[in-house]
Amino acid sequence: MGRDRFGYVAFGDDALYAFGALFSGLRLLHYCPGAKITVLTDRPAIFRRYPIDVIELTAERMTEMSFGNRYLFGIKAAGVIDILRRCERLFFMDADMYPTGDISTCFSDISPSLSIMRKCEGKPKPAYRTLEEKGCLLGTRRLTGSEPMWNSGVLGVHNANIPALTDAYHTMEQMIGLVRAHTPEQFCIGIALSEGGRTIRRHRLPIRNYNTRGRKLFARRRIEAFFEANGHLGAEQQIKQAAAYRVWRAPLDLLRQRDIWHF
């Protein structure tokens, strides 16, 4: 088992998740040479030419991880646990997150008592208020629905916290049908990593994202164009090209998207 590892989970009908994770991984290999990267994915062939370890997601395993296809974000939560079993400290990023500089210092902030997440979003949506009357438990803690919501687009965690993440995962299943939102995964993880004397710190690393409608539309076109133009090159050449390649929007790009409300 290696000490430090970066991780991604990429699955689903939209290939952008797999190619987004690959593009992010290529940039990561440029800024952090020698980085150990694992991707849990249902499209393993996309990654086989690269210095990236792959855990294949079968349809059966995805059904199991998502509680019988009732909550797809359960695949992400269970996938983080799977990758964390292969290292001591894991720094996970969603497929739409990508580094713009050296982020290898992330591991110095990860310990059994300290985790990293993207940011604290404050109190969750009103949909969570029903939890207090439903007797929903995370470990031995009775949830009220007013606990702080941490964004899990970035997650740095020590493998000593696998039991806490497992408690969070089982609580997600309890919440199916109780909370009409897609965020129980990050809600439960944030609580679990804040219990028992543990704390969470917001990351302040050079990482960007394309997780809004306008950014995603632009990034999709750019990432597709990148692999169309560079996919035939060797891994080392693609790593170099990815580091110089822009997937964020310049002012002119924003002007061209002025008809899109959600930027």
Automatic annotation (TrEMBL):
Top-rank taxon: Bacteria
Protein name, as recorded: Nucleotide-diphospho-sugar transferase domain-containing protein
